[in-house]
Amino acid sequence: MGYKTIRNSTHWSAVLLFLGPSLAVICCFFFLPVLAAFLLSFTDFDIYSLSNINYLRFVGFNNYISALQSPVFWTSLKNTFYFVVAGGPLSVAASLGAALLLNSKFIKFKPVFRLVYFLPVVTTLVAVSIVWRYVYHPKFGALNYLLSFVGVSPVDWLGDPNFSMPAIIILAVWKNFGYNMMIFVAGLQSIPVDYYEAASMEGASGWQQFIKITIPMLAPTTLFISIITMIGYFQLFAEPYVMTQGGPVNSTLSIVLYMYQEGFRWWNIGYSTALAFLLFVIILIGTLVQFRLQKDADN
Amino acid sequence: MKKVIAQLSFCFVLLIVLSGCKRAAENSKEANITFWAMGVEGETVSKLVPEFEKQNPGIKVRVLQIAWVAAHEKMITAYASETLPDCFQLGNTWIPEFQALNAIEPLNDLVKQSSVVQPGNYFAGIWDTNVMDSVFYGIPWYVDTRVLFYRKDLLAKAGYDHPPYTWAELYDASKKIKEQAKPKNVFSFFIPTNEWAPFIIFGMQNGAELLKDNNCYGDFSNKKFKDAFDYLARYFYENLAVVDMQQVMNVYQAFGDGFFSFYITGPWNVTEFQNRLPADKQNAWMTAPLPSPDGNYPGYSLAGGASLVVNALSKNKAAAWKFIEYLSKPETQLTFYKLVSSLPAVTAVWKDPVFTGNIYMKAFYDQLQKTKATPKVPEWEQIVTQKIQTSADFVSRRLLTTEQAVKSLDADVNKILEKRRWVIKQ
């Protein structure tokens, strides 16, 4: 019965039948909220407006202007960029390194290592952060203990504004590299072995093979990973939220954490939606730049 | 297909029957009230419910426990969706905010008729936090204030046989303790910059109003607040207070080790210190009311605590009020203290041997006679946690002078209060 109705109906109704439900859900839970948030970013929606809608004012671009004028916004932006620029490449490099090791012919017990490297990804950050706070402890921490063997004097990792962001970066890289590693492993395994055989017959060294075969063949994977990592890292939130609450002296306050605090702690919804759209623009620019660089590299 | 239809229609019928039941229950004389409470109190208050239900047949109480960290977000969201419970617990500094939202019911008439709840039964400073323009919005449930926890033995070594009574004595004792310490890397006074309380307390003790012009502008650059801020900053500058609180990961261990000797904190730490300090240090510590800037000992402290409020939209206000009265009875308050050690708001309860026999409690009783409420504005929570704590952090690290800090505090606070000024003008 169903077979007949679909054949008799037009092309569009079939499309609607299949796409309709998901489109409706996406509209309801994605496009509509985004649109509402965009409109809210031009108002001063806050706790007073919640009690009485007459206390809602349209403020034009004021939220955007006051964000751009706020030193805290620039601090949080600077911190976020620091995290993306230092943490992003480090994270990709760590993933690639681990993937190469896992793909090596000389390593045994590969599934065990794969599991171990992947474990941080599936562990809850809140639980992990408690352990890491002990690792970073200035007096009893394991990290300072290890560093003392190479003559480094104790570092106050989470308390010193100069070291708090590096501490967050180390934690984030450790937490996240496993996921990208799995994608890299898949990418490495899809490179035909023939290339390496041919190259070694021609007398290419291991390093030359890595540079001339592995890296170019991994380019699409790397592009994908670096964009995903960049977008993910721009949204830095959970690590400082559980480790430092943005401190000391705002040195780990990321833009998303700032947005969360303004929006959900202080209920300045108008202002925090403006921050969200500023972040959206920044990520969009970052992604376009990366696409452009990749295109130039391909030519 | 037929089977499916049959099942569906069965479900439908069931639904109608069930909703009918619900309606029937609402129409009868029985009242079901819901009550939200936070933290340990929320966990334990359900133990008091059976007794209440026995005394008041016909009223059923459903208790929902919510975590303190998520409480504020959850209640505001519940308010927005009109799903607040009939009565609930509020931190007493949140009352202005929920009053501004018209979320809570004025209680004057109910208090007037009540034989249990009378303003005179409570600590005056605490009762006052529930009053806005002489309207009562909440009934104090348990109280909380900050006192000085100190190391008796180390203070004695520094030549003091009594806790510091004045700011000058506190400073002097801190200096002497530091000088006498055997390992040199210890401090005297623990002032964590992620706690706003000491900074506000010392300001209020010095007579600072904190906000001015009907609480519409910040008044932090006022000399009274700045002097108090300077006083505390000196502890950081002279290495009497540890600048980076991350070094004190375990307060109890650090206090036991003598890493610091003074700490301003609340009643929950009495049990914690009793449980966690090593046995040989149990006689080495004591609590005392806070020192004062002048000779008027003790100095003011915070009028903290939690209050019970009634939802303005509740359909069961009478039953909710009965439950609040029950929780405010001296016997219930005493049972509650025995269950969770939250300090009772009703002063009569403090005459019980449970309190008179506890040497650490006297400081709290004395301190509760001398408390001051913080400014009653909805934005207060944001002002202290976002602005005061950050300023304290910057000042302790010498990234800002107190002069610069109070100026930027005023600027930030004025910006936060902009909406309040506009709303008041409307």
How would you describe this structure to a colleague?
The complex is a heterodimer of chains A (299) and B (426). Chain A has 15 helices and no strands. Chain A has helices at 2-8, 11-40, 47-51, 62-69, 71-103, 110-122, 125-135, 142-149, 161-189, 193-201, 206-217, 219-234, 238-243, 255-265, 269-298. The termini of chain A are far apart. Chain B is 48% helix and 15% strand. The longest helix of chain B is centred in the first third of the chain and has 26 residues, at 2-27. Chain B is built from 20 helices and 16 strands. In chain B, the strands form 5 sheets. A 6-stranded mixed beta sheet of chain B has the order 2-1-3-14-6-15. Chain B has a 4-stranded mixed beta sheet with strand order 8-11-7-12. A two-stranded antiparallel sheet of chain B has the order 4-5. Chain B has helices at 2-27, 39-45, 49-55, 68-80, 95-100, 108-113, 124-128, 152-157, 167-180, 197-205, 223-237, 251-257, 268-276, 317-328, 330-340, 353-356, 361-368, 380-396, 402-416, 418-425, and strands at 31-38, 59-66, 87-91, 131-132, 135-136, 139-144, 147-151, 189-190, 211-212, 217-218, 262-265, 285-288, 301-302, 304-310, 343-344, 371-372. The N and C termini of chain B lie far apart (63 Å). Classes of the chains: A mainly alpha (299), B alpha/beta (426). At the A-B interface, α3 and α14 of A face α4, α18 and α20 of B.
